[in-house]
Amino acid sequence: MEGIFEKYRPYLETRPCELCGQREGFRQLPTREKYRFPVGVALCPQCGLLFFNPMWSAQGYDRFYEADYRRLSRPDHAPEARWADQQALGRWLCESALAGILKPTHRVLEIGCDCGGTLAAIRERVGCEVIGVEPNQAASAAARARGIPVKTRSFDGFEFEPESFDLILLAKTLNHMVHPVRAVQGVDRLLKRGGYFYTDLPDVVRGSSFRRVDAQIDHPFMYGASTGRLLLISNGFSIRKSWEFPRPHVMQIRLLAQKGAGPGAAGPEIRRSGRAVRRRMFWNTLKSPVTSFKQAWARRAGGN
């Protein structure tokens, strides 16, 4: 893994906080990166955002996703398995999150659509016009083979006419983005007024403490419930619904937001987010020695 990381070392750069613009006072946290890359996570003292600092530039991540991401992350996760997962999400969106909202006349865009299963499920159940954006050539080709129109490129918010979509999806994608604020602003540009934006994020804060953050290099920014909401609210969206879904190894936050109804995030909202993150990590830090003691005692009692 060290050899792979060395390819990307020239792309490392320091950055201010993406959410609030804070430039100093970051707390560097003990970090365990999934692939054992020698990187560290910083905690913003204002809003509570967690992020790699330094982190790879956008060019570095583009190269990583094209050359190394798929074989490192889930080499055995075939397109058929990903398709089934995406179909399940599409059904849940139609039957639960967006029930009574989606109409056959609506246009739906998915950013990071992979092989297109979510869009296919929405088109099948509601009859919407769908289109995807996917940077990976193999994934976008798989989507087109199933009849889903896809643009093979990275998303920048200028691929389509302004205010041309009723619903935009960023499923398992926003946490991979090097410029998430720019991405959310691009979503705002493309949505019709009153249109809906769905996204989901792993709740990394829920499992983090001041003793350790479990991170992975393809998630340059790590969110909790408060920072995920702050990202949307501060860019003009209003949160309409939210859910917490248990996933393997992490809790997933699902958010449905609406354009044109958000007040924006002022200083008090930013500071509230920071306090919420620090409070969660503080309690996790207190719990971790107790948990370790209980596990050790259980092993001893069991003779292991």
Keyword list:
304 residues, alpha/beta, Rossmann fold, seven-stranded mixed β-sheet, four-stranded antiparallel β-sheet, 9 helices
Read across the widest sheet, the strand sequence of neighbours is 9-8-7-10-11-15-14
Structural class assignment:
alpha/beta
What is the helical fraction, as a range of percent?
25-40%
CATH architecture of one domain, please? Answer: 3-Layer(aba) Sandwich
Beta-strand share of residues:
15-25%
Unreliable segments of 5+ consecutive residues: 292-297
Biggest sheet features:
7 strands, mixed
**Which word captures the global form?**
globular
Would you give an account of this structure?
By secondary structure, the protein is α/β, with parallel strands linked by helices. The chain has a domain at 155-297: Rossmann fold, CATH 3.40.50. The chain has nine helices and 15 strands. The chain has a seven-stranded mixed beta sheet, with helices on both faces. Strands 2-4-5-13 form a four-stranded antiparallel beta sheet, with no helix packed on it. A two-stranded antiparallel sheet has the order 1-6. Residues 292-297 have low confidence and may be disordered.
Summarize this, please?
Helix content is 38%, strand content 24%. With 304 residues, the protein is an alpha/beta fold.
Summarize the helices and strands and which ones pair or pack.
Blueprint: H1 2-8, E1 12-13, E2 27-29, E3 31-33, E4 41-43, E5 50-52, E6 55-56, H2 58-67, H3 69-73, H4 79-97, E7 107-111, H5 117-126, E8 129-133, H6 137-145, E9 150-151, E10 165-170, H7 180-190, E11 191-202, E12 213-215, E13 221-222, H8 225-233, E14 237-247, E15 250-259, H9 267-301
Helix pairs in contact: 4-5
